[in-house]
Amino acid sequence: MENDFEITSMRNSAEHVVSILKSLANTDRLLILCHLAKQELNVSQIEQITQITQPTLSQQLMMLRKSDVVSTRRDGKQIFYSIKDEKLVQVLQTLYELYCTKTVLS
């Protein structure tokens, strides 16, 4: 019985991780998340920093909301985005250290 619970728990965790990894498997979404790992940003700030055009940005932000990796906060007319799970921030920091440092890019 305990083994069944463990398998079910592992399967649920695996499904959650797959969902998160799918959200990372797009250049624009990964770029957005890398910036959100540093700080909460509104849509205009994300557009300016990433240089992703508005229609594409809206589509990718919608995908991130659907995959439940970001949370939103409204302040007047502005919507601010942040990463929901601190573990994802740690994953993004690790990816940055492994693949985005000057040493790796040289």
UniProtKB/TrEMBL annotation:
Keywords, comma-separated and alphabetical: DNA-binding, Transcription, Transcription regulation
Domain HTH arsR-type, chain residue ranges per copy: 9-103
MF (Gene Ontology): DNA binding; DNA-binding transcription factor activity
SUPFAM superfamilies for the chain: Winged helix' DNA-binding domain
NCBIfam families: HTH_metalloreg
Protein name: Metalloregulator ArsR/SmtB family transcription factor
Organism: Acinetobacter tibetensis
